[in-house]
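Design review, sub-item: ligand-bound model
Attendees: FS, YL, KQ
YL presented the inputs for the S-adenosylmethionine complex:
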Amino acid sequence: MAATPKEGTAGADTVSPALELEDLEVQLLLEAVFRRYGFDFREYAPASLRRRLWRRVHAEREQTISGLTEKLLHEPQSMERLLLDLSINVTAMFRDPGFYVSFREKVVPLLRTYPFTRIWVAGCSSGEEVYSLAILLQEEGLYERARIYATDINESVLEQAKTGVFPLEKMREYTQNYIRAGGKQAFSEYYIAAYDGAQFQRSLIENVVFAQHNLVSDSSFNEFQVIVCRNVMIYFDRSLQNRVHRLFYESLAHLGVLGLGQKETIHFTPFEEYYEELDPHEKLYRKTE
Ligand SMILES: C[S@@+](CC[C@H](N)C(=O)[O-])C[C@H]1O[C@@H](n2cnc3c(N)ncnc32)[C@H](O)[C@@H]1O
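KQ shared the predicted structure:
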């Protein structure tokens, strides 16, 4: 029978030998993945990481985390499957619509004062957030003087993003989100039904550059007026979050805007004092120093 994860069996100040062993196996797997493929998950939040590794252990019909490590080392295709599990690509168009309402109210007027705007969408997954921002900028008459750099660690989601085809059955939900996000037209004007999905207007990605970029190991590649990184750092431990905040701080222009996800904040990071709140509820911050 396959081994199962033993969670929460230890007392407050004792760690069971089984958990210690599991910890060691996880560390060795992460080290192996890093040394063999260069993907660094060593500072991802451990609880969610362990859950996902066990899911993959079972899916690959292995018995233990060490069994999975061996397979990963010898079969690159199993690494691709693990990458999909670990990179958690859940996303949606106009996700958390209040964010877009606030972006229109508080960020758009700032962008109007610039001749040109560079926006970095870090951890863009399959692109729904990028198309949403492109629609918003177009409706505000700002798209022509903007360039969006959309990056993710996972190349296969970027390929999906470039196609601009999203599931037709999602359109009802996305239309609701769009309306709640303050959308100004009929959402259906932006896509046609094609290839078993909704094909979004190609013009929406005319000014978008899609590129693979790893927030853990890659450096800054430009200076931006806006950085949007939502629902990515929740998967990182505190020290990795702080490193990524440094990267964003160094990549933002003076008075640049940082947009985070609902469950994320600039507070309790070493960079807190260098930002002012544009909208604390929608997690929009402005670099002041
Ligand atoms: C939950 S999705 C968030 C998508 C989108 N930002 C949103 O809020 O809907 C998280 C994304 O972060 C990406 N990601 C995870 N680790 C990353 C890393 N080290 N560097 C860049 N992207 C990463 C994943 O591949 C995934 O597409």
